[in-house]
């Protein structure tokens, strides 16, 4: 190898070494730059965490400061109100605190049906029947019809499918959904007592599929026994056995259901379920009751229900005239007196003011009874005031 070639090789080796040194220096500079970039990012993250923690601490401090203020305001309000209103104010403040404590993110949304809209969850079998019915009726796009069908259990859907019912899509006044809802209501009505008015015993007979003899037995029971049978009969024992158990049962005297235990069962239970309009503590006056039958029913009713208000029965005719017209009048008067009612004769409710001067049962002269005589009866019943107060008009 000549000297020239050796010199060329040495120069080439030096160039390669220089290039390697430059590459190493560049790599080192890049690493340093990356490290310098990571340091500011870490510092920024730390600063953000500190910034988040500081507002949280500030909020806690603010809540702690607000709570004493709210308590102080509540105490100040309690001191300002009267003694008998403190319970109401305490309840309002508790409700306010509960509402404030409960104010947060909204609760979970209601579950929805398979169409995404709000409604009941429909099972796969029900959904298949609904799709089949709507396809059969050519009402696949009618959401109102689907809403009506969504409310039905599977057994009712099967029954509807067997009826071959199809709602009229071209009805002049009603939509298919309205016709469908009406048809479903009629199906339910067909399962009820048919042919006559339904009372408690007729409904009970229909529910348990009892015969006519069982119905007659139930209609002959008193209030105590009938209530026991209806509450305890489950068709596991014969009806006669349950009736015998009812005869031996002793009712609880502390409950309202034990009132009038010997009264006719059907009548007492039917009356028990009606709205009670008469205040048990109010006095009641009846005017113009010729043979006193209404007053007798009222006195019996109030005694059965444990009312303690007075029952005052009056007639327009004198006792002599009543004895000529009604042979049973003396017995009616005795029955009223046995029920602690008061009976007065010769009272004209349209001119009651002139009769009260000599009345032994009222010691005040009314101011408005002559102008509005109906208030004499209505006011004690609906306003719960004494008869004297009602007649006085004050």
Comma- or semicolon-separated keywords:
single chain; 394 residues; mainly alpha; three-stranded parallel beta sheet; 59% helix; 3% strand; elongated
Describe this protein's structure.
The chain has a three-stranded parallel β-sheet with strand order 1-2-3. Helix 4 runs parallel beside helix 6, helix 9 crosses helix 10 and helix 9 (223-232) packs across helix 11. Among the domains are: 124-190; 200-272, no CATH class; 284-392, no CATH class. The radius of gyration is 44 Å and the shape is elongated. By secondary structure, the chain is mainly alpha-helical. The protein has 17 helices and three strands. The protein has helices spanning 3-80, 86-102, 124-137, 143-150, 154-162, 176-190, 200-208, 212-219, 223-232, 239-248, 265-272, 293-304, 319-325, 329-338, 352-355, 375-383, 387-392, and strands spanning 284-286, 311-314, 342-344. Strand 1, helix 12 and strand 2 (311-314) form a beta-alpha-beta unit. 15% of the residues are buried. 59% of the residues lie in helices and 3% in strands.
Mean pLDDT: 75
Q: Total number of β-strand segments?
A: 3
Structural class: mainly alpha
Order of strands, widest sheet: 1-2-3
Strand content: under 5%
Euclidean distance between termini CA atoms? 145 Å
Low-confidence stretches: 361-394
Give the helix proportion (percent range): 55-70%
Rg, alpha carbons: 44 Å
SSE pattern, N- to C-terminal: HHHHHHHHHHHEHEHHEHHH
Q: Looking at the structure, what is the overall shape? A: elongated
Largest sheet: 3 strands, parallel
Instruction: Compute the number of helices.
Output: 17
């Amino acid at each position: 190898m000549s000297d020239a070639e050796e010199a060329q090789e040495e120069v080439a080796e030096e160039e390669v070494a220089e290039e390697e040194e430059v590459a190493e220096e560049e790599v080192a500079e890049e690493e340093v730059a990356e490290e310098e970039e990571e340091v500011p990012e870490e510092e920024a993250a730390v600063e953000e965490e500190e910034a988040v923690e500081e507002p949280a601490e500030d909020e806690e401090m603010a809540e702690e400061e607000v709570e004493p203020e709210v308590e102080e305001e509540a105490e100040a309000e309690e001191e300002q109100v009267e003694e008998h209103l403190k319970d109401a104010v305490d309840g309002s403040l508790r409700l306010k605190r509960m509402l404030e404590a409960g104010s947060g993110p909204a609760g979970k949304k209601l579950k929805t049906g398979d169409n995404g809209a709000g409604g009941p969850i429909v099972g796969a079998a029900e959904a298949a029947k609904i799709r089949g019915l709507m396809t059969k009726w050519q009402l696949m796009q009618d959401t109102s019809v689907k809403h009506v069908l969504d409310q039905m259990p599977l057994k009712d859907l099967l029954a509807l499918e067997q009826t071959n019912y199809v709602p009229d899509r071209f009805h002049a006044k009603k939509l298919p959904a309205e016709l469908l809802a009406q048809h479903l209501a009629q199906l339910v009505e067909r399962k009820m007592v048919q042919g006559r008015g339904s009372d408690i015993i007729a409904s009970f007979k229909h529910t348990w599929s009892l015969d006519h003899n069982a119905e007659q037995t139930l209609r002959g029971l008193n209030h105590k026994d009938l209530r026991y049978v209806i509450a305890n009969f489950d068709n596991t024992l014969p009806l006669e056995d349950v009736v015998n158990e009812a005869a031996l049962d002793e009712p609880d005297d502390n409950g309202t259901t034990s009132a009038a235990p010997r009264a006719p069962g059907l009548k007492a239970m039917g009356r028990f379920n009606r709205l009670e309009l008469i205040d048990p503590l109010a006095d009641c006056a009846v005017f113009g009751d010729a043979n006193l039958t209404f007053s007798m029913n009222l006195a019996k009713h109030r005694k059965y229900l444990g009312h303690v208000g007075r029952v005052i029965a009056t007639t327009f005719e004198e006792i002599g005239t009543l004895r000529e017209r009604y042979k049973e009048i003396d017995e009616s008067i005795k029955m009223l007196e046995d029920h602690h009612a008061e009976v007065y004769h010769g009272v004209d409710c349209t001119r009651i003011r002139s009769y009260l001067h000599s009345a032994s049962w009222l010691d005040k002269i009314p101011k408005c009874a002559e102008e509005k005589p109906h208030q004499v009866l209505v006011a004690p019943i609906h306003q719960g005031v004494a008869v004297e107060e009602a007649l006085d008009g004050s």
